[in-house]
Amino acid sequence: MSDPMRERWRLVLGDAAQDSLGGLSAEAAGRDAALDWLYGRDADLGRRDVRRGGSAPSALTTVDWLDGITRLFPKETVQRLERDAVERYGIHEVVTDPAVLARVEPNPALLRAVLRTKHLMDPQVLGLARKLVETVVRQLVERLAADVRQSFSGPRARRPSRFRQARNFDVRRTIRANLAHWRPDERRLHVRQPHFFSRTRRHLDRWQVILLVDQSGSMLGSVIHAAVTAACLWGLPGVRTHLVAFDTEVVDLTSDVDDPVELLMKVQLGGGTDIARAVAYGAQLVENPRRTIVALVSDFYEGGDAGRLVRSVKHLVEQGTHVLALAALDEEADPAYDRATAQRLADVGAAVGAMTPGELAAFVAEHVGR
């Protein structure tokens, strides 16, 4: 067994493999200590008699640990360790200690942690945390904006044009039309007649997109992506976007849609859930039912009147509104939700499922472009 392979197994198996696999190099011992600092606090370890690493005895602080993993592990592993620290073991110093915040590289897991703990932060820490939020949100917006542009600006009709412009060069038609001028000896196609196409703009009638987002703690990922999605849809021709957050209360955040960072910093996570109340509020915003998409983003665990919720959704569907009941709106689109309530909403005509933000943008573009 090669030394790297032996050390890898030693890191996996912990101290119990010390006798059979031997010791660790200095770098591997550092990795072992960093892993043990985090995973050694797992309450199940004693019961399961599983690895206890830490061959390099150390009383690491959070700052020391963060500096160590950044030096010892690849970026993907660092992000996983940070995510486990805040989400699995509740080590909030990663996002509430200014010394730590100054060192971390922003990523979605830390964004979620900031939004969960921002009420614990003093003004200095909140300022640092806001910079982390800005960085991650900007990255999310940039990724989704590309999907939105593709969904809304793709050419729906390509007609021949005499107007020659490089970006409208029709490669396939040009090749087909000039195949007779292929020179095998030169391995070159001589283009005698280039072809171009014109892009026809879609006629866009005014549409409303109303996002109703459950801000309970379990829906945090969807809250983040709803804010980013609303920001990307904001200002598109033919689309008027609303964003409404709810728990037992309903808060219309539409005035902040163009600033998703400010919007997320205002979100108050937790509390109960009154979905019916949110849907009733959204129904009041509808101007032209047949030109409206209501996207209800929730886990459908109704703390209010489930019957009222079903009746409100049924009314929206019957008047011609497109109702999406989304159990998740995030990059994984991996939902956990009350299936019984979701089935009742599907039975009255809502489209129930989960979407990535890009899929929602494509859905909106498809209907707006009709």
Automatic annotation (TrEMBL):
Organism superkingdom: Bacteria
SUPFAM superfamilies xrefs: vWA-like
Pfam families with a match to the protein in the record: VWA_CoxE
Entry-linked InterPro entries: LolB (IPR050458), Uncharacterised_CoxE (IPR008912), VWF_A (IPR002035), vWFA_dom_sf (IPR036465)
SMART domains noted in UniProt: VWA
Domain VWFA intervals: 206-365
PANTHER family membership: OUTER MEMBRANE LOLAB LIPOPROTEIN INSERTION APPARATUS, OUTER-MEMBRANE LIPOPROTEIN LOLB
Name used for this protein in its record: VWA domain containing CoxE-like protein
Naturally occurring in which organism (per UniProt): Micromonospora marina
